[in-house]
Amino acid sequence: MNASQTAAKVRLGQLKAEDLTKDCINRIKEGNAKINAFLEIFEQSALAQARAIDAKDPSQRGKLAGVCVAIKDNILYKGHTASCASKMLENYKAPYNAFVVERLLAEDAIIIGRTNMDEFAMGSSNENSAFGPVKNPLDLERVPGGSSGGSAAAVAAGMITMALGSDTGGSIRQPAAFCGIYGMKPTYGSVSRYGLVAFASSADQIGPLTADLQDNALLLEVLSGHDPKDSTSSQRPAFKMAELETKGLTVGIPSDFLENLNLEIRSCLDKAKEVLSDKGINFKEISLPYAKYSSPCYYILTSSEASSNLARFDGLRYGYKDESAGDLEDSYLKDRAKFGPEVKRRIMLGTFSLGSAHAEDYYLKAQKVRALIANDFAEAFKQVDAILMPATPNTAFKLGEKTEDLISLYLSDLYTAPANIAGLPALSFPYGKDAKGLPVGLQLYGNYFEEAKLYALAALLEK
Ligand code: GLN
């Protein structure tokens, strides 16, 4: 059963939220020792929530009644720990609910626990968690992708049907691709960032990871909508899935951006193109000349923003406090030492790029490149309704395989980061397998607020 079927049965009184929640808790307990997808199960609050839903008049039960949803560990749920998989916030308890958590609660979803991630959402393999890596449930020697690897692995392992992730450069879509599930990075501004621990505010977006395509759209409906507490939140009406006529839509293939594409992924892409053509979709070659600069542009901009955002974790305002520290400098040294190596690297890179001696060459240059990349897409969307490309340059790699090769790890975001740079929606969906039997993820980009088109096109490719 997918989530919408489960919720329908709870609304009809045919299933009890409490039974569903207990089953889910058992599944997580059984599977988690192997894959480390969950950092905590919110057992008590989840069961209390379930009982309250069962006590409600069935007609009053929400869209996600009784459906267990996991949240990434950088999303605040009042009274619960939100650690960002960091020693810095190991004991931090959320003082309020994120907007998306309020939305889940309002629709009677059960918030079942918090999922493992790369520390502060920085990573592409989930090996940067302070609480141990997550393993890919499809092959335990491989990474699930990152940084929302815990959310993706929990869904792929069948522990849950839905989870929230956050995506700053690909952290929903890349793990979705590595684990063979669906992941949507919505248009920037369509889902509130209130209560999401900031990594790079101009790129961060929360979005759904699900086993089922229709569920993905359903969860996005619940999450999106205007929030006055997020100054970048769009005033437009919330996303609503609609029946769409896909015949006659035009999909672009960015040939210049796909020059060195891995052949196995290329063959899945060609197959998808063939199937879509048979279903009445037109194809057009397009050019995205600046998209190939997305990785360097992304790493300069997001590290710069992170160096500023993470300044608040100084032991005084937020984060770990070493009581033995003497003066202020000693306290910064001891408290900020709690960050892991990747987070420190980004803070240093960002501080360097923003410094007055270098800002012109790095931060400001990257801002200009950002505008050029966004312009590539603006030109493309004058000609096409959506763009088809891979989600990732490779399928899931082995744990430890890229830890010494940062550049190759950073290039994992090649096809995903442009969406965050331009603020566009992009959907990653499983399509085919490589020779090792690992899932291949493809991706559809859309114009601003055109998520519905992406879901409709992906539905044509569903098995
Ligand atoms: N892999 C990218 C990074 O390491 C993306 C992270 C993200 O989207 N949160 O920054």
Give a description of the structure.
This protein has 463 residues and is α/β, with parallel strands linked by helices. It has a single domain (1-463), classed as Amidase signature (AS) domain (Amidase signature (AS) enzymes). The chain has 15 helices and 11 strands. The chain has helices at residues 3-11, 17-35, 43-55, 99-106, 149-156, 173-179, 213-223, 263-278, 294-309, 328-336, 341-354, 363-380, 406-410, 417-422, 451-460; strands at residues 38-41, 68-72, 110-115, 162-167, 182-185, 205-210, 250-254, 282-286, 386-390, 426-433, 439-446. Strands 1-3-2-4-6-5-10-11-9-7-8 form an 11-stranded mixed sheet. A hairpin with a 5-residue loop joins β10 (426-433) and β11 (439-446). α2 (17-35) runs antiparallel to α3 (43-55) and α9 packs across α12 (363-380). The longest helix has 19 residues, at 17-35. The radius of gyration is 21 Å and the shape is globular. The chain starts with a helix and ends with a helix. Glutamine (GLN) is lined by residues 121-124, 147, 167-171, 199, 302, 413.
Name a few traits of the molecule:
Amidase signature (AS) enzymes, binds glutamine, 463 residues
How is the biggest beta sheet arranged? 11 strands, mixed
- Strand element count: 11
Q: In one word, what is the shape?
A: globular
Number of helices: 15
Number of domains: 1
Mean pLDDT: 97
What structural category arises from helix and sheet content?
alpha/beta
Q: Roughly how many Å is the radius of gyration?
A: 21 Å
Order of helices and strands: HHEHEHEHEHEEHEHEHHHHEHHEEH
Which architecture per CATH? Alpha-Beta Complex
Bound molecules: glutamine
User: Could you name the CATH topology?
Assistant: Amidase signature (AS) enzymes
Q: Which range does the strand content fall in? A: 5-15%
End-to-end CA span: 16 Å
CATH H-level superfamily? Amidase signature (AS) domain
Can you tell me the CATH class? Alpha Beta
- Looking across the biggest beta sheet, what order are the strands in? 1-3-2-4-6-5-10-11-9-7-8
Low-confidence runs: none
Helix content: 25-40%
